[in-house]
Structures are given as C-alpha cells and as structure tokens.
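Schema walk-through. Below, the input block comes first and the output block second. Nothing else is stored per chain. Lengths vary across the set, and this one has 174 residues.
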Amino acid sequence: MKRLLPFLPLAALALLVIVSVLLLTRGGERETVSDGRIGRPAPAMSLARLNGGAPVTGDDVIGRPYVINVFASWCVPCRAEHAQLMSLQARGVDIVGVAYKDDAADTAAFLTELGNPFHAVGLDPEGRFGLELGVAGVPETFVVGADGRIVAVHRGPLTEGDITNSILPALGRR
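--- output ---
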C-alpha cells in the first residue's frame, strides 16, 4: 500500500483531466437557445465603425430582418464559424458584426485574412454592447426580426445545420 501512495496525486490528476475533457466535449451545451431575450427589442446600438465613418446603428438595417454576430479576432471558434458567415452573406443576409473586446487593428487583420461577411462592423472594445445583448462568450449570433425584436439566439460557432435549421427559418427564409 505504501508503494502506491506516491502515485495517488498522479491518479487524481488523471481523473480530473478525464472529467474535464468529458465536460468540455459533450454536445448540446452551446446551441440555439430560447432565453429571456427572445421577443425583446434588440438593444440600441451605436458603435464606432471599423475603419472609421458614421457609427454602426440599428438604423442601418431598420425594417428588415438581420443577424448580429458577436466575434473577436482572438477567438478560435470565431475563426471556425467564419465560413458559415460568408455563406450567409452569399445568401443575401445582412449581418452586423460586433468586434467584442478586440483591438480594431486585429479585427481588420482578421477580416482581411478570412474575408468580410459583414454589412457593417461595430467595435465594442469594452464589451458594453455585448453586455446589453446578454453575451456569455464569443461567438454568439442573434437574429433580429424586421420589427427590431430578437427572434433567435445561437451561442457558439455556427454550423451549416444551425444555419439551415435555426438561423434561416428565424429570418423567414429557407
């Protein structure tokens, strides 16, 4: 028994790693959710525009459904979902990007490298607008109806299935 005692911390560490991996890789945690934001008006938006110009506001897309995508250049899942955002743009969807807690130069470099799917990109360097939206982390996607109310929320990186089954139907498209 005394010979096994030195291996006890190693066994505890291995168990902790296994439990952590199982918790982090289980599915269904970050999906389209029905939360308290659904049906509420999207918060008023007035964000500095990437590369200057007039602020990004809700007036840019008033009267038509659109998507708000909260992302950051430092976010690995944001990089993973980027192709899906480009696909949405190709389908004619208006997407307002919100660069969450990110540096403008890093955001610009990220979009230069991967392409810019956004109708407009607003900067949220301190995360205040993200807080008003109820962002828990990045990426998060909000579908806003033509009436300005949030009709769907997706937490985590978008997949083609998410777009087909949740985002496009929330926009009134197929």
